[in-house]
Amino acid sequence: MLTSALAGLSILIVGDSHLTVPYYLIDSLHSGLEEQGAEVRTFGVCGTNPSDWLKPTVGTCGAAEREPGGKVKVLPASTSTIEIDQMIARYKPNLLVVVMGDTLGAYKEPVFPKTWAWQQVTGLTQAIAKAGTACVWIGPPWGTEGQKFHKTEVRTRQVSAFLASNVAPCEYIDSTQLSKPGEWATSDGQHFTRSGYQSWGKALTQELLESPTVQKLEKK
């Protein structure tokens, strides 16, 4: 019987709004990784940028958490982020998974703010590197053109390419490679319906199973 590459790993997932509603990735990805034998803890704060995880910052639209083996717990709107180095020290994960990309897209801005995004991303990756924790960064998936958040295919492609080149030492998972534009239905252009999150979570679980970062951890 083959053992999953994720079996026995302690995984901490942090990120933005895609982790803050009970049927989002805090359900599908968290459960998918647990089914592979990992111990998973998820904490999401809606509307957060990478730098918001360097100091306690109140989110703009809610928060949620899920402990190993537990159910999703929706948290008060006043919930703050926790400094990433404190979380790593507290939970000692084998693997940190960062779900962040849409907040960096600045979809309502006419031009992608590359300098600002670089400052945001490198601040967090430097903190992760200092902690010495293996890391995987999950980028934004396709949404529905326009709508409430003004998300577009062009900008999503820009953000994903930027993250692919700038999240080291984290490994990058390009979510745009996991579906075709428009394949997963959204509720507002940016967040998926239940079936979309199930599909994304399933695809991400498979990506993590095959991740070079996870394969190295397995060999330790």
Automatic annotation (TrEMBL):
InterPro entries per UniProt: SGNH_hydro_sf
UniProt keyword list: Cell cycle, Cell division
GO molecular function: hydrolase activity, acting on ester bonds
GO BP field: cell division
Superkingdom of the organism of origin: Bacteria
Protein name per the record: Cell division protein FtsQ
Lineage, opening ranks: Bacteria, Pseudomonadati, Pseudomonadota, Betaproteobacteria, Burkholderiales
